[in-house]
Design goal:
Elements: H1 5-15, E1 21-26, E2 42-43, E3 53-54, E4 60-64, E5 69-76, E6 84-94, E7 99-103, E8 110-111
Antiparallel strand pairs: 1-2, 1-5, 3-8, 4-7, 5-6
Length: 115
């Protein structure tokens, strides 16, 4: 029996209470680090679940170090360490200097299926 959209939305709204931080993933599959100003995970807020999906409420800006390649993003439950909830890929972007990267909220939709 498929789960109703209302139940899936409620489940996403509960899950997003654990999805407190977002970090960037490099081309080697690990979280980016270093730089000055230093790269850090960013605290985030989520939209209310609608039609089985959630997205970040707004774009997120990160400091990224010279030579980094932003290839994905990941949700975390803690500012340092903690649980990572899966890597979502991005079109790789190489930074040839200390720079900023803006993760567009339009690229952060997480959805669940009814089947």
């Amino acid at each position: 029996m498929p789960v109703s959209i209302a139940v899936l939305n409620q489940g996403l709204n509960v899950l997003k209470t654990r999805f407190k931080y977002v970090g960037l993933i490099g081309s080697d599959g690990t979280e980016i680090s270093g730089g000055s100003p230093a790269y850090t995970r960013q605290a985030v807020s989520w939209e209310e679940a609608f039609d089985r999906s959630i997205s970040l409420l707004s774009d997120v800006t990160f400091d990224v170090p010279l030579g980094s390649v932003v290839a994905g993003w990941q949700i975390y439950d803690n500012a340092n360490g903690g649980v990572g909830f899966g890597i979502m890929g991005l079109i790789p972007e190489t930074h040839s200097s200390q720079d900023t990267y803006i993760l567009s909220s339009q690229l952060t939709e997480i959805s669940v299926s009814t089947s």
